[in-house]
Amino acid sequence: MLPEFLLEIPISTVFIFSLAAAISLLTSLTNRLLTNPEQSKTRRKEIAEWNAELRKAQRSKDKKRVEKLMKKQQYILQLQSKMMWQSMKVMLLFFVPLILMWQILGGFYQGKPIAFFPGVSNNLGVVTIPLVGMQLHSLMWWYLLCSFLFGTVFSHLFGLVSVE
Predict the structure, then answer these.
(1) Residue pair 24/150 in contact by the 8 Å Cβ criterion
(2) Cα–Cα distance between 17 and 142 in angstroms, integer?
(3) Which of 32, 38, 49, 146 could form a disulfide with 20 if both were Cys (CB 3.0 to 4.6 A apart)?
(4) d(Cα 158, Cα 108) in Å, to the nearest integer?
(5) Using CA atoms, how far apart are residues 67 and 159, in angstroms rounded to an integer?
(6) Which is more confident, 25 or 120?
(7) What is the DSSP string of 104-138?
(8) Using CA atoms, how far apart are residues 69 and 91, in angstroms rounded to an integer?
(9) C-alpha to C-alpha distance for 88 and 44, rounded to whole angstroms
(10) What does the alpha-carbon distance between residue 7 and residue 119 come to, in Å, rounded to a whole number?
(11) Beta-carbon neighbour count of residue 87 at 10 Å?
């Protein structure tokens, strides 16, 4: 169903690159609209501070301080649960469409190279993981690499992650 020209390198490389960019942009925008990044940052900071204090108290064997911090554990677990639900909302929206997209693309690109990875792929675009010997088709590798790239860029652009 895909036009023939989308199945040949370098067009397939650019197509999957663009698809990963579009999906990453869409998920980042959705994440930005459905979550409150400032609230998430505050919660992450509070949880990290509590964990650091707890580790410090445990290392110094300060039982009173550990007891006091453990009284706040339920609250910290609630914060973590709220944060997890925020990220789950976006995943639930995109899970089925992404699985369907992978099924469709996998059928079209089965056995066809998408991109070459110098030093680790053969002329069919199959990547062999060094030392493990596991082989993966380049559709998955190329999409994942592009997706990680764009996911990171868009997350920073939309303020979904903080750099401290």
Answers:
(1) yes
(2) 8
(3) 146
(4) 33
(5) 36
(6) 25
(7) HHHHHHTT--S---TTTB-TT-EEE-TTT--EEEH
(8) 32
(9) 16
(10) 23
(11) 14
Q: What are phi and psi of 127, to 5 degrees?
A: -95, 130
In this prediction, residue 125 carries a pLDDT of 52
Q: Which two tokens stand for residue 20?
A: 């990963």
Round to whole Å and give the CA distance between 163 and 18. 26
Residue for token pair 């869409």:
26
- Segment (H or E) for 10: none
pLDDT at 132: 47
* Residue recorded with tokens 């609230």: 39
Per-residue pLDDT of 74-127, as tens digits, reads: 999 999 998 888 878 888 888 998 899 888 888 888 777 777 666 555 555 555
> What number of other Cβ atoms are within 10 A of residue 156's Cβ?
13
Say what the pLDDT of residue 153 is: 92
Cis geometry, peptide bond prior to residue 97 (ω within 30 degrees of 0)? no
Report whether 136 contacts 126 (CB < 8 A): yes
- Cβ proximity of 53 and 69 under 8 Å: yes
pLDDT grade for 61, boundaries at 50, 70 and 90 = confident
- Token readout for 148 is 């990680």
Distant-in-sequence, close-in-space partners of 117: CB < 8 Å, separation ≥ 6 = 125, 127, 138, 141
